[in-house]
Amino acid sequence: NNMRNIITFILFIASNLITAQIYVCKEGNTKFTSEAPLELIKAQSNKTSGVVDCATKNVAFSIDVSSFDGFNSELQKEHFLENYLETEKYPNATFKGKIIENVDFTKKGVINVRAKGILLIHGVSKEKIVKVQLTIKDKEIFTEAEFEVPLDEHNIRVPKEKKKKIASVITVEVKATLKPKA
Questions:
Q1: What mean pLDDT is reported for the chain?
Q2: Best CA proximity match to 18, nearest among 58, 49, 50, 53
């Protein structure tokens, strides 16, 4: 009986430690901008999900690419999703990696870190280091990141006649508020 109490206590402590160290979000915001000589394309989505494990410093973010909206027209959205990102074949874009710097997640404040990992877009994985600003609050972590995605690195082909309308390097911004996993 005493042993059972000790095991229950240990499991209780362990489960509290585990849940307190994993932060998640389901409605992060991802925006991208293509600034080409003839056309500015901006789109965004509030369907970015993410997880940060404070104990291991592992991070993972995923977005349903077809959830992007705000294009200049429906036709532009259709072309972008079907012809360039081929969302039927490659529905998600993901980043999985690890924060390089040591972070004290118990200390409130703003800290700049780098996450090194694999960015998967259009079925092509590329190693990438992303600069991230973390704002650590009582029961949440706000993350902000901005990085560039060269289309050719992810085999996203733009026909010659569209090169003045679609930038060869797209700027991506991600903002997410992560809360302790319930």
A1: 91
A2: 53
